[in-house]
Design a protein that fits this description.
Number of helices: 13
Helix content: 25-40%
CATH topology of the largest domain: Uridine Diphospho-n-acetylenolpyruvylglucosamine Reductase, domain 3
Radius of gyration: 21 Å
Order of helices and strands: HEEEEHEHHHEEHEEEHEEHEHEHEEHEHH
Structural class: alpha+beta
Number of strands: 17
Shape: globular
Strand content: 15-25%
Amino acid sequence: MRVETEAELAETIAAAGAPLRIRGGGTRDVGRSVDGEVLETGGLTGISLYEPGALTMVAGAGTPLAEIEAALAAEGQRLAFEPGDWRGLLGTEGVSTIGGVVAANASGPRRIQAGACRDFMLGVRFVDGMGQVVKNGGRVMKNVTGYDLVKLLCGSWGTLGVLTEVSFKVLPKAEATGVLRCDGLDDATAVTVLSRALGSPWEVTGAAHLQKGPEGAPVTMIRLEGLQDSVTYRCEALRQRLADIGDFTVETDPERAAVDWVHVRDVGPFQGRAGDVWRVSVTPGAAPDLVARIAGAEALYDWGGGLIWLLLPEGQGAEAIRGAVAETGGHATLFRASKARRQQGAVFPPQPEPLARIEAGLRAKFDPRGVLNPGLMG
């Protein structure tokens, strides 16, 4: 069933006597399958407020992401956290919505410099598991409203409440982009390079290493953005800083730079290929050793090595990944796998007992009847 208004959504959830499978645009099929009636929120659309001078926007949760980005682009602005399009990776169709972006806390390569989706959220409206409409936060950058439910809803995957409206901060688009590229580095050297770049004063906005780049060979990429003269100067200064490790070239063509970073953002190397995909977060220094311990894995390193996307043969590597993460710290999510595979074990990282109790308490508070995507994050 599909709802068109917040009131209709509240009535539907309040009347629900069985689990509901919450779906926005249907592009992010992550987590365990939910056995329940599909509740579509794509009808909750529309940009209700956009103030370019104040860098703020308010939109219905079902508003297509493309519509949001088009409105921002017309004013020379953008979503700084660079949400990815995972349809090619997950084999899904549909239209990505801003509510789905927030529910997944979808954040791309620029997170290392600008922050995550949750860092740009100003306010939310949502319906909890009892059918009650809840509002938290506001439409300005400074507000004090008690518990920060805004950040709590980000990354909750529709299990605590169903978003109806989101308000968020936006930023101006960069005038120019420069990308430093180096081919052929091994993983450990590449992560060392990325760490040095991120530790420099040159405001890196992207730092990635692909074991198999667009041409099939390893490629390491570092992105800088800003005013044209500043980007030119910073790229050359950083290239010289890294000259003792690798032979970097500087790419300033905006179209080529955009294609390269969409490839990273959307996990392009793994699209259309068989196998399971894992999303692993660790400290960058531990990343190369962790990957080396996973037999048969192909890796894409983002966030300077802090985020690793792994492609493995179907059904393999789970124990090795969980074990390596337990030793090094961090967490791992089985991001793409068959439905049967996702039902067999933990998809999202198992929580330590203290956090598990807190999580259970939150779910009991916001969805006491267990009707919102039950089991999806189990």
